[in-house]
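The pair is quoted verbatim below.
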Amino acid sequence: MFSISEVLLLILILSPAYVLLRFLFLKRKKIQKNILREVFLFFLFCCVSFVLVMTIVPKLLIKPDNSVTILPGSSSINLKPFSFIGELKLYLEMEIYSAVVFNLFGNIIPFAAISLLCALLFKHFQKFYRVLGYGFVFTCSIELLQIPLSRGTDIDDVMLNTFGFMLGYLAYKIILNIMPSFCNRLSE
């Protein structure tokens, strides 16, 4: 698994390619540039990149002789729902609060951000059932891709990630009620 700083570094490395490709796309299609929308699309790119790097990109170890090794991960598969509650309780008893924060927020916040941004940016995602459906498929795809990568697969991750998508949609509805003109400026 990557550290947050490594993920941010990878996103920083990928960002110029995204900006260049997006610029060329807008120029080729002769689309009027909406800077605010482009900023939010870039945030969506960063959130999706963050999730993909943290979940399916294997971690590489570059040795002093410049050879590269893929570091082994966990090949566990958990199909027992809500087992994370026992783990969280154990972490709290042992006062390992960082594990609690990482498990809960790492499985909810990035997916809530993706859901919120998709609903703000694309009319297609402004229906709850679509956000929930796409969110469920996205998170199941990640968990299934983790099996051959020996990254560990967990039904609790599916539930927490999908909950994150629901929270993001709820945040979208709140923002829509407070600032409808702002939402309309972003939506396509």
User: Anything to note?
Assistant: Helices lie at 4-29, 35-55, 83-93, 97-121, 128-146, 155-178, 180-186.
